[in-house]
Amino acid sequence: MTTRDHGCSFPGCTVPPTWCQAHHITDYSLTQRTRVDNGTLLCGHHHREHHKLGWKCHITNGIPHWTPPPWTDPTQTPRRNHAHDPHHVHP
Predict the structure, then answer these.
(1) Tens of pLDDT, residues 40-72
(2) Whole-angstrom Cα distance, residue 21 to residue 24?
(3) What SS3 class is residue 2?
(4) Would you say 29 and 38 are in contact if contact means Cβ atoms under 8 Å apart?
(5) What is the pTM of this model?
(6) Are the C-beta atoms of residues 67 and 55 closer than 8 Å to each other?
(7) Distance CA 61, CA 34 (A)
(8) Helix, strand, coil: what percent of the chain each, to 5?
(9) pLDDT tens per residue across span 18-44
């Protein structure tokens, strides 16, 4: 996950991987397994708060994408974090 995510995968978060925790996208209690393709890195804040904030994570083409709640984005367009991507031009 560190090689793929390079830090917290929540959109816009710049926390590095050494300060992150592994997160099961589909809860472990449902799958009873831990796999990279069902995990992503999250900083402590986003690990604790993403559910309360209404965001949901899923993997698309091997990359974590986050869907915002309708009150944040009525179109609920999935987003990925580009903060750790050195090739992405930040606005």
Answers:
(1) 999 999 999 999 999 999 999 999 999 999 999
(2) 10
(3) helix
(4) no
(5) 0.87
(6) yes
(7) 19
(8) 25, 25, 50
(9) 999 999 998 777 777 888 889 999 999
